[in-house]
Amino acid sequence: MAKYFYALTVISRDRVGMVAAISEVLYEKGISVEDSVSTLLGNQFTMTLIVSSEKNYGVLELKKAFAKARKNLELSVSLRRIEKEEVKTKEPENLYSVSVYGEDRVGIVYFVSKAFAENGINIVDLRTRLTKADSPVYVMIMDIDLPRDMNEEKLKSILDSACKKINVDYSVRKIETYEL
Amino acid sequence: MSVRDIVLYPDRRLKEICVEIKSIDEYALSVANDLRDTLHNYSHTVGIAAPQVGELVRIVAIDVSKTKKGQKLNHGELVMINPEIVEWSSIIKTREGCLSIPDYTGNVNRARKVTVRYYDLDGNEHRFDTEGFEAVVLQHEIDHLDGILFIDRIISRRTDLFRRKNY
Fold first, then answer.
1. Yes or no: domain B12-161 corresponds to CATH 3.90.45.10
2. Which of A23, A68, B12, B114 is deepest in the core (most CB within 10 A)?
3. Is the pLDDT higher at A160 or at B155?
4. Predicted pLDDT of residue B161
C-alpha cells in the first residue's frame, strides 16, 4: 500500500501532556511516527517528526486536526508534505563527534558551520547550550560526516582556523560503533 | 593550608599540560594540602585536580567515600602525586559534570576498570585496581592534568542509529 509522508514540527511552552495531545491527534488520523526527536529547550518543548499515513491527507486538512490542541496548548504547528526518498537517512561516510566550546560570543555556530559547509562536511546532529554560570560557557556538540576523501588531519586544520578566529576550544573523536 | 578558589573555564590554565612533580618539596605539599582542603569544602565534590586551583602540576585529590555512589568500592581519601592510569578495560557510559564548568553535564564513555599508579606525599609508590565510580573519577581528574575536559570526551546520541559499516 502506498504511504504518504509529512514533516511536522511543534513547539510550545512546556507543560504536562504535550506529547499525549500531539500523538492523540496523529493516532486518531491513523498516522505513524517514522522518525522523531523531541526535547526541552529552555522552557519550550519542541517536537520534530517525520510521520506517515496510508491515507493521502491534504496538508490543510491535517493542520485542521491540530486546531483543538493548538488552541488548548497555545502551540505552533508547521506541517509540509515530503517525498518518500526524504524519509531514509543516507548512510554516513566517515562520522566524527566534535566538541566546540568557549566563552560566549555571537557567531560560534556560524563560524564553525560555515567552515564545515565550505569544505563539504555535513552536520548530522547538533546540540548547543549556554551555561547559566556567572561567566557563561557556550558548548556546541556535533556529529559530522566527512567527505570520503577527507582525513582527520584536514578536519583538524579546518576546525583549527575557524576556532582561532572566535577564540574557542575544540576536540574531535572518530565515532566508532562496536558490534558486539 | 587553605581552601582555594576554583578556576573556571575559559581560564587557559585548564587547557595546559601539567608538569610532573620531581621532588615532594614544600610547594608540592602546599598544593596537595590545598587540594585536600578545597575538596572537603564542597560537599558533593569527589575529586579535584591541581589546575582547578591554578597550579599546573600533576597532583589530584579524590574521595569517593563522601557519596552514596562511592560506597560500594572506594579507597577513601587519596592525594596522588604524578598519578597515571597504567591499565584499563571495559567501557561504561557516565554522566559527568565539573566544578570548573558549572551548570553543564554530558554523557561520556570511560573505562570501567583501571589500574592506577601514583606516589603518596611521602614519596612511596602505590598501585591499585579499582572500578566503577572511583575509576571514572580518577580518569576525570587525571584528564585535567593533560588539559582535557569532559566536554572533550562527550559522545552525542544521534549516531547510535547508524550501523557500523563493514570493516
1. yes
2. B114
3. A160
4. 52
- With vertex at residue A126, the alpha carbon angle to CA A123 and CA A132, rounded to the nearest 5 degrees, is 150
The residue in chain B having the minimum alpha-carbon distance to the alpha carbon of residue A129 is: B104
* Interchain contact, A95 vs B159, CB within 8 Å: yes
Cα–Cα dist A43/A50, whole Å: 23
Distances (CA, A) of B116 to B9, B46, B129, B150, B161: 27, 17, 7, 19, 35
- Whether A78 contacts A43, CB under 8 Å: no
Structural domains in chain A plus CATH codes: 4-86 (3.30.70.260), 95-174 (3.30.70.260)
Domain boundaries, chain B: 12-161
- Chain B residue nearest residue A171, CA to CA: B152
ipTM, interface predicted TM-score of the complex: 0.78
Written as one string, the DSSP assignment of A113-170 is HHHHHHTTPEEEEEEEEE--SSS-EEEEEEEEE--TT--HHHHHHHHHHHHHHHT-EE
Query: From the first residue on, what is the mean pLDDT of each consecutive set of 10 residues in chain B (167 residues)?
Result: 93 97 97 97 94 98 93 96 97 92 90 98 98 97 97 74 51
Residue in the structure block whose three cell numbers are 522552557: A43
